[in-house]
Amino acid sequence: MGPTVNTSDSDITICSGDGVLLYLHRTNLEAISGALAAPEFLSTSDDNVVALPESSEILGTVFLFIYPNRHPSLRDQDFETLLEISDAVQKYEIFAAMNTCETRLMEAIPMHSTDILLHALRHNLTDIINESVLALCRLPVVQTAELLQPIDVLPWVSAAMIIWLSNY
What we know:
Blueprint: E1 12-15, E2 21-24, H1 26-32, H2 39-42, E3 49-51, H3 56-63, H4 79-91, H5 95-123, H6 126-136, H7 141-147, H8 150-166
Parallel strand pairs: 1-3
Antiparallel strand pairs: 1-2
Helix pairs in contact: 3-4, 4-5, 5-6, 6-8
Protein name: BTB domain-containing protein
InterPro entries: SKP1/BTB/POZ_sf
């Protein structure tokens, strides 16, 4: 975590799922985040502590994007951590981090197309869905369908058919 996540003049405290306190600025959250700027989130208890389920590693990285500094590239993150960061970015609507996460996920499609497709379906990331489906189209339909959750099979088959038909 960078120094901007734990500043002495902060006015809101986030307690991560692993019990680490992160000290932030309310104005930055209001300006950069869609979900964290909501009144129900920012109206905290008297001690201004908001509990979030993600680990301090994930939240610390995500909150680096709410400050006007050079943002992390996320190139050094392993795939599982990248997925967790991207989930938190989508969940809390950290707009400044969305493109970075999406770029890193696109780069990882050749090695992790199924996991990325499931992530993209959860968050309605159309470009990533399309790229993941293209990668998965190289596999037999039955094999790919077995990898997906039942709720995701129909959207995948629909997207695969549209892409397949558009190529012919």
